[in-house]
Task: structure prediction
Amino acid sequence: MERIRPRRRAALLVAAAAALVAAGCTAEKKDDAKASGAPAAPPAAKVAPGVTDDAIKIGVVYPDLSSVKQFMKIDHGDYEAAYKAVIGRINDAGGINGRKIVPVFGAVNVASPAAAQETCVKLTQDEKVFAVVGTLNANEPLCYAQTNKTAVVGGPLTAKNYAEAQAPWFATERGGDEVGDSVDLFTANNALAGKKVAVIGVVNEQSLVNEIVVPSLQKQGVTPVETAIMDASFRDPAAVSQQLGVFIQKFQASGADTVVVVGGMGGEFPKQLEKTSYRPRLLFTGFNQAATYTGDAAAHDFDGVLKDAAALTAATKWDEPTNQACLTDIETRVPELKGKLTVDPATMPAGEPTPQTSAGSACLYLTLFQAIADKAGKDLTYESFQNAGFTLGPLQLPGFVDKADYTRQTPHGAIPMHLARYSPQQKKFVLP
Result:
């Protein structure tokens, strides 16, 4: 069986922590956005903020997890050291078309509702970077790509948010849009025939539930018997427990034997289910969020709650050659990490520090940024950067089994999804 490792960015293992707050900028509707077919390309002027004859200034966004240590045991390692190491490798090799990358770091306190906005203002208005790369969650990219018209590499690129962008935006994930193309993996071989299905999500992903998940299930011939949206704050554990308890009672009363757990609800719903005797089959739309549950070091009834559970995921492989080459180089440049990064984090005990997460983030996003900026050529502007991304084509991103494919129609790379299943032996989700 192929291992599934906790994926990096982003929302990566930060999903549960980021759910503590609702962050992001307000988006305004763009009249020329297309509802279907090829997405409308964002405006891309011949401007190049942060670019000189010999340098490209970029913003690096990453989660500051120190504020949530009281809630969960998560240690991603030193993001700044990892990014500096990868940037050092690129610069030592001549940079990007003769320009050295100059990073400006933006740590986001994931427990502060204002932190994402403050970091956005710092990087775009104060530092005037050319592009922002790194870990961005939910609607956070819009503060950069829409409000401040700054290029973005990273974050969940949904069709809805992409239609609001006012600057080039490329990513490796689709923020839930991929679920619409992948629900058929849940229903393959008539797996849901005759089943009573319920759906649960969290309020900041209500549109994902109502506009993508439920219609996609209905298209596959499955009409949910119950749909629930939790609006209690994750910062109020008692309120979360009470509301989810009510939903669980309703699901059980309706006879639901299968529950589709959407996005950010993946880390919390199973915990609440443990408190009851109700054991429906769980289908997770997001592997990363489900991994926050299986990765929790506390005692859990994983085998009972996750019996026959499955999760949608892109296929990743820690020993993928480009990933290992990047990680090995970081170990060389950061001696205290020697021998720590090339170890598959999926093999490590729950609760242990995973410096592979910060290192993996640096390898992933800087690989994508470098590929696009390299192809843009010496005359680097938003126009040339966007045109380069639209014609990049197949690209091997560090750690992924399948290649991404960057075109005008797929600025998110269109990385294929697979169905991982819970393994009682390994206590985690794995690919067959």
Observations:
- The chain has two domains: 2-31+38-174+318-414, 177-285.
- The first helix runs from residue 11 to 18.
- The domain at 177-285 is CATH 3.40.50.2300 (Rossmann fold).
